[in-house]
Design brief:
By secondary structure, this protein is of the alpha/beta class. It has a domain of 188 residues: 2-Layer Sandwich (Nucleotidyltransferase, domain 5), CATH 3.30.420. Helix 1 runs parallel beside helix 13, helix 2 packs across helix 13 and helix 10 packs antiparallel against helix 13. The structure holds alpha-D-glucopyranose (GLC).
């Protein structure tokens, strides 16, 4: 049944359509930006060389530490790699205080992180810790340090396996004095200040960790091509031919690395794909969200795709309808006594969490019961009419579907540009993040969109295996710490 509310919801939803021809344009531009990013520095797609030149095969063994900074929580874990595609993991998780995420100093943040590592060691590896303290007190030089992989999920100009300077903050972090500094050195200094038996062995982006973890746990010989995150932020890392990474020829200062595989993992930082908006869709809600964000003009792809932003796009669309006199969204009428209190999240920037979208999208009930409950729980909106709920569902669906179809752009472009689908029978992709995990049919929409690309088609899409790679950032970081420790030991032998 038509009504002004539903008509307006449909009109707005249409602005989020992202048709096949646009996807193709996006893929062509992505491939262009990929090549530009491999050729020189300072491009919109960073294409960061990671110094990881090999993906694991599942036989790796040992006990490693990993920490993960990049979302709402800071995680510390120890990972025991069993060498048979399996591992055991012990972890602790703590929410990062808001005041440390923005406005504080890098010293405060890194000291906080080191303190969490200390607490973790005391609880889970106290014997090792005490033995180390004793050795220190006795002045012994023999050190038995834990090798730690540092998952730091922000754009970093990487200069070696455990060296990299922060390019810019993303996802709501903003600590100006850290920009340009080597984040591994910042963490190592804070660790040393507390006398912890820990060596920061590897710097890892979460997407690289996801790629490594997926490759370690996959029980067949197919190495993984790509690791991607669709969570608070979005980004991907993939295996590239060394001779295509032209900008490394002109790098001035970076550590030596093993070139024997002829490949290196590239951290694309695709959140910043097409910052100049030559192909990305751009509704007025996207524009407003960007203008009011703390980093306008950057991470433009991420702002249309990832969990941190979808709720805010929806909020702006809902608020627009709510304030529109000619449509009655969430307005009392003869048939509805809906109530929107002043402190409702609908009036506050970032007031809608992405989990709200997943719940609404999942709700197929006739009475839209889950949507009603979510409106009450998340936005304090009481007794919405059925039409209100229907309008919310229309908008949620449009925003979520656009995000998933956009997600197919970098995936499609990397599949095409590496030529992997032509060469191999099966191409493996590891993914992680709340959107792929919880948003209904997110992977399905990605697959539908890949099929629409002429270079991939239904045949190509069948060859793509996408699998969740849980705990990628922990296990992946451990795997890279292992490679780094091995390389270090090899170098010491030569000396
Ligand atoms: C942001 C970060 C990137 C990270 C992604 C997913 O885009 O810049 O480094 O991989 O979020 O967490």
């Amino acid at each position: 049944m038509s009504s002004p509310v539903l008509d307006e919801a449909a009109r707005i939803a249409q602005q989020f359509d992202y048709p096949a021809a646009e996807v193709q344009r996006g893929v062509a531009e992505y491939i262009r930006e990929m090549e530009e990013g491999l050729a020189k520095e300072g491009t919109t797609l960073s294409q960061i060389p990671t110094f990881v030149t090999e993906v694991p095969n599942g036989t790796e063994k040992g006990l490693y530490l990993a920490v993960d900074l990049g979302g709402t929580n800071f995680r510390v874990c120890s990972i025991d790699l069993h060498g048979d595609n399996t591992f055991s993991l012990t972890q602790s998780k703590i929410m990062i205080p808001r005041e440390l995420m923005a406005a504080g100093t890098s010293k405060d943040l890194f000291l906080f992180l080191a303190r969490q590592i200390e607490a973790f060691l005391r609880i889970h590896h106290n014997d090792h810790f005490e033995a180390h303290l004793l050795r220190c007190r006795e002045g012994s030089k023999r050190e038995e340090l834990f090798d730690l992989g540092f998952t730091f999920s922000f754009p970093v100009r990487q200069l070696g396996i455990n060296k990299g300077t922060l390019i810019r903050w993303t996802k709501g972090f903003d600590i100006p004095d850290a920009v340009g500094q080597d984040v591994c050195a910042l963490l190592q200094d804070a660790i040393n200040d507390l006398d912890l038996p820990v060596r920061v062995a590897a710097l890892v982006n979460d997407t690289v960790g996801t790629l490594m973890a997926r490759s370690y746990t996959s029980p067949d010989e197919h190495g993984t091509l790509l690791g991607a995150i669709f969570g608070t932020g979005t980004n991907g890392a993939y295996v590239e031919k060394l001779d295509k990474i032209k900008k490394m020829d002109s790098f001035d200062t970076y550590d030596d690395y093993d070139k024997s595989t002829g490949e290196m993992v590239i951290n694309a930082e695709w959140g910043s794909f097409d910052n100049h908006l030559s192909v990305l869709p751009n509704t007025k809600y996207d524009q407003e969200l960007d203008a009011d964000s703390n980093n306008p003009g950057v991470q433009m792809f991420e702002k249309r795709v990832s969990g941190m932003f979808l709720g805010e796009i929806l909020r702006r669309a809902l608020l627009d309808m709510h304030r529109n006199e000619s449509v009655n969204l969430f307005k009392p009428s003869e048939t509805s006594d809906v109530e929107v209190p002043e402190n409702s999240g609908i009036y506050k920037q970032w007031g809608i969490d992405t989990s709200f979208l997943s719940i609404v999208e999942k709700d197929k009930s006739a009475g839209r019961e889950q949507t009603k409950t979510a409106l009450s729980d998340h936005l304090r909106i009481q007794r919405p009419s059925d039409t209100d709920c229907q309008a919310v569902q229309i908008l949620v669906h449009a925003i979520g579907k656009r995000a998933a179809r956009l997600s197919a752009v970098p995936l499609g472009a990397i599949l095409i540009s590496t030529g992997k689908l032509k060469k191999d029978e099966l191409v493996d992709i590891g993914v992680d993040g709340s959107l792929v995990e919880f948003y209904p049919y997110f992977e399905g929409y990605i697959r539908d969109t890949l099929k629409e690309l002429p270079e991939i088609g239904a045949e190509g899409e069948k060859k793509v295996r996408i699998g969740i790679s849980k705990d990628g950032s922990g296990v992946g970081a451990a795997l890279i710490a292992l490679v780094a420790a091995k390389e270090d030991a090899a170098k010491e032998k030569v000396l």
